[in-house]
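Before a computer can learn anything about folding, someone has to put a protein's shape into writing. The three-dimensional part falls to structure tokens, numbers that each stand for a local backbone shape. The protein below has been through that process, and both of its lines are reproduced in full.
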Amino acid sequence: MTTTISPSMKQVGANRGIEIAKSVYQADQQVKLISLHEDAETLLQQLHALKQQRDPSAQHHN
């Protein structure tokens, strides 16, 4: 017995592959965004520490 796949089923499979690729790409971009956000937070903390060294009376502002 041979199984045949209709053209519409092939299209569904192709669309599914595209959706998977998009979701992976989006997840990758989310990871990069989170990493950049963490880097920015670290740099802000370092900047605050440097300001504290220059002026120990400086207040912490958010």
User: Anything to note?
Assistant: Residues 7-54 form the longest helix (48 residues). The chain has a mean pLDDT of 80. Residues 20 and 26 are 10 Å apart (CA to CA).
